[in-house]
C-alpha cells in the first residue's frame, strides 16, 4: 500500500471509530455532518501521525513502567485535544472520553489487522 493509500485508510478508520463512538458511547457526541466528521477524522489522523509519535518518545519511560497503560492515556489525550480543537465534538465526562478512546483504538487495531493483512 502506498503512503497516500495508508493515510486515506487511517483517515477512514478514524472516521469509523468516531462514528461508532458517537453511536454507542453516551456522552460522546459528534456532528454527523460529513464536513465536520471529515475534519475531525482528519485532525485525529494528523495528531496520531505527527504529535503522538513525539509524545511516545518523550513518555517512553512512563509507558514502560505502566506496561503500556500510559499509551492508552496518550490516546485519550489525543482524542481530547481533537475535541477541543474541533467544533461539533462534545465529550460530557472522563468516562465518555475513556470509552470513546477504547472504541476508536479497537476500531483501529481490528481494521488494520483485518484489512492490511490481506494486502
Key terms for this structure?
single chain, 119 residues, mainly alpha, two-stranded antiparallel ribbon, 2 strands
Describe the structure.
- The protein is about 80% helix and about 5% strand.
- It has about 120 residues and is mostly helical.
- The chain has one domain.
- It has a two-stranded antiparallel ribbon with strand order 1-2.
- α1 (about 5-25) crosses α2, α1 packs across α5 (about 95-119) and α2 (about 35-60) packs across α4 (about 70-85).
- The relative contact order is 0.18.
- The model has no long low-confidence stretch (mean pLDDT about 95).
Major sheet characteristics:
2 strands, antiparallel
Taken as a percent bin, the fraction of beta residues is 5-15%
- SSE succession: HEHHHEH
Unreliable stretches covering 5 or more consecutive residues? none
Rounded to the nearest angstrom, the distance between the terminal CA atoms is 7 Å
Count of helical stretches = 5
Helicity, in percent?
over 70%
What is the arithmetic mean of pLDDT? 93
What sort of overall outline do the alpha carbons produce when their principal axes are compared? Answer: globular
Strand order of the largest sheet: 1-2
Number of domains: 1
Which structural category do the helix and sheet elements fall into?
mainly alpha
Taking all Cα atoms into account, the compactness measure Rg is: 14 Å
The total beta strand count reads 2
Amino acid at each position: 500500500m502506498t503512503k497516500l493509500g495508508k493515510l486515506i485508510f487511517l483517515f477512514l478508520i478514524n472516521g469509523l471509530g468516531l462514528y461508532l463512538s458517537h453511536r454507542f458511547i453516551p456522552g460522546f457526541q459528534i456532528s454527523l455532518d460529513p464536513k465536520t466528521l471529515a475534519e475531525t477524522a482528519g485532525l485525529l489522523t494528523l495528531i496520531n501521525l505527527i504529535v503522538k509519535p513525539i509524545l511516545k518518545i518523550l513518555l517512553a519511560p512512563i509507558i514502560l513502567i505502566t506496561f503500556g497503560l500510559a499509551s492508552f492515556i496518550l490516546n485519550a489525550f489525543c482524542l481530547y485535544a481533537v475535541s477541543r480543537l474541533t467544533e461539533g465534538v462534545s465529550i460530557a465526562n472522563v468516562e465518555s472520553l475513556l470509552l470513546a478512546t477504547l472504541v476508536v483504538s479497537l476500531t483501529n487495531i481490528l481494521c488494520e489487522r483485518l484489512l492490511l493483512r490481506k494486502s
